[in-house]
Amino acid sequence: MHPWIAQRTTTFDASGIRKVFDLAANLKDPINLSIGQPDFDVPESVQQAAVEAIESGKNAYSPTQGIAPLREAIKADLDQRYAHPDREVFISSGTSGGLMLSMMSMINPGDEVIYLDPFFVMYPALLKMAGGVAVPIDSYPDFQVDPDKIAAAITPKTKMILLNTPANPTGVTATVEQIEAVAKLAAKHNIALVSDEIYSHFHYDTPFVSAAQFNPDAIVIDGFSKSHAMTGWRVGYVHGPQEVIATMLKIQQYSFVCSPQPAQWGALKALEVDLSSHIDDYRQKRDLICDLLADRFEFTRPGGAFYLFAKAPGNDGGEAFVKRAIEQGVLIIPGKIFSDKDTHFRISFAAADETLRQGAEVLNRLADEG
Ligand SMILES: Cc1ncc(COP(=O)(O)O)c(C=O)c1O
Predict the structure, then answer these.
(1) Where is the Aminotransferase class I/classII large domain (predicted)?
(2) Can you give the residue range of the structural domain that contains 302?
(3) Residue 88 phi, psi (nearest 5)
(4) Which of 76, 181, 193, 306 has minimal Cβ neighbours within 10 Å of its Cβ?
(5) How many helices and strands, by DSSP H and E, does the chain display?
(6) Is the CB of residue 196 below 6 angstroms from any atom belonging to ligand 1?
(7) C-beta of 225 in contact with ligand 1 (< 6 A)
(8) What is the pLDDT of residues 138-159, one digit of tens each?
């Protein structure tokens, strides 16, 4: 290791993802079922709002906490929804920025952080960067949030529970009862509950319910990346107890500084956009991919997000199956990138229906070949 590299960077690695990108780089015209963002573009009105912001000179730093109209609009909605007297909100540099600031502001070295395995790739990396100890909870085979398993993992060192519903990579949505139980468990033990709700709009079978509904101190992280296909714009928001939010802002001031100002004006417009036709479209994609793969693959039907997490056929594991799929031009992601196990693979159904059909045909053929 180069002598300048800090110790904290050695506790996690990104080589798994790099390997997939390397394999993908050799593909000419892949059937791409790996993408973590919608296949629709940023709504026209949102694009126009950002262009107008740039052209009218809104190009400087914004306040650290974000532009006032965006923050006030989100705050008004939160007040109406929860009426929590201590709830404050700020605009972060994407949801990732909010996650990073959550760890930096709340995790001391040695603090334990509970989250479900499979998990979003950033969780273990970010909490370890802050010196935290990862406490993954095995949620195979159905990927449900099991409040009893979470309760059993709590120790005097537990500082945070990270909840992600709808989940990446499984697409599984927690039930209202599960969310309520985890929210109350965190409150009972005075543990921070960080709820990553980036896929909240993509909730196909039941209305989305936030953990904040049941825990006035829940820290919620949300954003515009997925709902409005704005992954490159870097606008998210975090709400929670005022003092925690003020601490995150202190760190944002000395790191991200602010979310890009023109993008924030776009996000303000995004609040007015009706997403229902896109969500209906994605519900149909979910139905389509489930129908196409149901005969040959084991998976829990995703209730949200745009991912399906299926067990690789045979006994060679997820990575070996993904390698075979990529050799046939289908780009999917090995489950071990999101997990301590190498048994599954992730499909993103944020793709054209024809791409989903082509991809499923190849995957089904590979399953038949064994
Ligand atoms: C569960 C989850 N949280 C957070 C993020 C990060 O999103 P953002 O673009 O807002 O940083 C992602 C992106 O894939 C995600 O899947």
Answers:
(1) 29-362
(2) 7-42+275-369
(3) -125, 160
(4) 76
(5) 12, 12
(6) yes
(7) yes
(8) 999 999 999 999 999 999 999 9
